[in-house]
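User: Hello! I'm new to structural biology and keep hearing that structure can be predicted from sequence alone. Could you demonstrate with DUF952 domain-containing protein? Please show me the input and the output so I can see what each looks like.

Assistant: Of course. The first part below is the input, the amino acid sequence of DUF952 domain-containing protein. The second part is the output, the predicted structure written as tokens.
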Amino acid sequence: MTILHLALAADWDAAQPQGEYRVSTLGRTLEQEGFIHACCDRTQLDGVAGRFYRDVTQPLLVLTIDPAGLDVRLETPAGSAETFPHIYGPLPLTAVVSATPYTPA
């Protein structure tokens, strides 16, 4: 099983020297949000992209993550009918299976 995270390419690049990724979602850090937002599948990721990233002009990446060894909790945000995986703690770069350019479905 893998989970997905939508990332600004610049944020992913900035994480490389540190060995871990600490961006929760667009414009918010792990420290600000308390966890890193993720998606269960590509359909959920496309929905997030359409709702929150539609005005972003910077390159986006899909991070495919192996959740083994991570503190991942399935949670339903207030006001949502969907359950999302939330990663508690920084994301080690070694847990990222691939980082590929995001293209809308």
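User: So the tokens describe the shape?

Assistant: Right, they're a compact way of writing down the 3D structure. Reading them back into a model, for example: The chain has a mean pLDDT of 96.
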